[in-house]
Amino acid sequence: MLVGDLLRMPDLRLRARTGDRWLDRPVTGARTTELTDPGRYLDGGELVLSGLHWHRADADCAPFASALVGAGASALAASRAGAGELPDALVAACLAVGLPLLEVPEDVSFGAVAERVVLELAGGAGARLAGHRRLVAAAGEGLERLVAVGAAELGAPCRVLSTTGHLVAGPDLPQERRAALVRDYFDAERLPAAVRRTALLPVRARSTTGWLLAVDGGHAHDPTALELADLLALERARVLRERAAATRAATPLLRALTTAADDPATRAAAAGLPEDEPLLVVALSTSDGQDALPLLEELLAPLAPNAPAGLVATTAATAGTPIAAAPTAATKATKATATRPATTATAQPTAAATAAVKAAASPAAVSASAAKATATPASAPAPAGKAATPVTAIAVLHTPTDPSPALRQALRTALPALSGRRVLVGVSSPVRAAALRGAAQEARWALALAAERGARAEVVTGAEIAPHRLLLAAVPDQARADLRRRLLGPLLDHDAARGTDLLGTLRVFLDCSGSWTTTAARLHVHVNTLRYRVGRVEELLGVDLSRFDHRVDLFLALQAG
């Protein structure tokens, strides 16, 4: 029984003076009192009946209302027999502390009100038990059936939404309304909450990648709504178990995408993906290294709910991008020598960053340790002095349409849930299964480009990447490594033996189109010093950097690393 139910009983004729927003509070009993502080005699949830005999002055109202709220009373029903309307000071005091105030007609006794409450509670117990049994039975019949039964029990439409605005179950709702519900959910100071006549309840707990239950009409504290949310949490746990199993099954495919150890087409077929139909690779990173995989899974749920997905180590192509809350050792090494302009659509790893990534565990091993990091609650910061886990979530999609518009919309909806974190997404061009490794590289390059743009939530597609990087993505890993070693080997060896950074000088010189003054300014060295360094590069590599074809060869070799 709710406070609002009392107002719908024609024989009582109660009138709400305050508290239209709080009429969904449950009533557990009725108690009559004329004490100035009745709090110690209340258990919580009662409808308190009072003839206001305690009222001597307006100053008495605020302490009385505060005492009721402190004891957990659901509402105050008051009457002043023969004395006219309720004091304005009492109305204001109840409004200030959030206590519904109901006015009892003079010809209706408190005994009649209390008796009606007792009868309703006694009769409602059997109805609640029957409703509980129907809900529990529906829990074994699927998510849509559970939500439909819950809506019937509550007498109001119910919807389950993800924090990305995806309608998980329930009647359709415009995307703008779903996004508004997600914002209201994360703006609410406490949950459950009733916002604009919609009850918002957490499914298990409020989190970055969780579900929420939205009930029309404001049933935030209705026991049936609370039970429905609990049963939905069991369904959510089942979905998470299925995703965890799918993640384990996807490990061989992810290893094939990120290393040369296996054939991507064979592993894609084993994962149930077609060989001759377009496939896409989607990569996602978060600024604190947390929730990357569950967030990617939530974003893809309406597009490809069974897409193979998992975590892999951050690769050399993205090791230097500024997306970590705390820099890793590889990131620090990269930042020490990175001088590429922010508008450039590429990100160059240093030798130190490349070595750090090559020393990382296989995707399967990384997935196990990284999963612990992503399981940390979104509100938990990384320990002081420690770097965020350098992981990327990757998924392979079999979809005939470009997912990037839907991903952008979902990320915009999820912004309130991200607690200020950056989320970057890279989407490859469609390819056949045999070319998935190149698509994975392209998705990571798109991720690097997203990092350079600086937005909190950014989605970049393969079509936005410079053509030379797309060409390199189609070249086998070993061929790219051979190209880099053949053209840059003497320079790499010299830097490693002497502790110099002639490779960095070459990179900046090419970035500046061979301009001596611009390069010297970028490196903060004298032009004569720069000429000496470039001369050493030409001597070690046997090239002439005034020739355009030599510059192109070396530029591609740098990109191939």
UniProtKB/TrEMBL annotation:
Region entry Disordered, spans: 326-346
Chain ranges of the Purine catabolism PurC-like domain: 5-119
Taxonomy, superkingdom: Bacteria
Annotated ranges, domain PucR C-terminal helix-turn-helix: 502-560
Short name of one Pfam family: HTH_30
Matches recorded under InterPro entries: CdaR-like_regulators, PucR_C-HTH_dom, PucR_C-HTH_sf, PucR_dom
Protein name as it appears in the record: Transcriptional regulator, PucR family
